[in-house]
Amino acid sequence: MSELQHTVKGVDHVAYPTFDPAATVTFYRDVLGFPVVHSICAAGWGPEKHPDFIHFFFDIGNDDRLAFFYYFGLEPFDGGPQGDSYSRFAEDVPIFFIRSRHLAIHVDSEDDLMEYRRRLDHSSWPVEMQIQHETIESIYTHDPNGYMIEITRALRPVTAQEDLDANLTIDALVDVVTGPDPSMAALLTRKAELITERAAAWQQEQESKEMATR
Question: What positions does the domain VOC occupy (predicted)?
Answer without folding.
Answer: 10-154
